[in-house]
Write a structure and sequence with these properties.
The chain is mainly α. Helix content is about 75%, strand content about 0%. Helix 1 (about 10-25) packs antiparallel against helix 2 (about 35-84).
Length: about 80
């Protein structure tokens, strides 16, 4: 199932793969007790990655909002300057 190109290693693909792996390990935990430590570590890492991804998206949205507000203020300043 190896793909070629940059899309094969996209963030989304990696997260999907890790999520499936963690789910499979959790579903088969009783049959794979020797992997329990690795399963819990993977689950914790996946939680951290997903939390940081969410935080990054929130920061991006906040930055876009700030940029829109700044553009509006600059446009207002330009109007005030031409009137005055």
């Amino acid at each position: 199932m190896r793909r070629t190109g940059s899309a094969a290693n996209s963030f989304s693909d990696i997260i999907t793969h890790l999520d499936r792996l963690a789910g499979g390990l959790a579903a088969n935990a009783a049959d794979l007790p020797h992997l329990e430590t690795h399963r819990t570590q993977l689950a914790a890492l996946l939680d951290d990655v997903q939390a940081l991804d969410k935080q990054q998206k929130e920061h991006t949205a906040a930055k876009q909002d700030s940029s829109r507000k700044l553009e509006a203020l600059l446009a207002r300043c330009a109007l005030d300057r031409t009137r005055g």
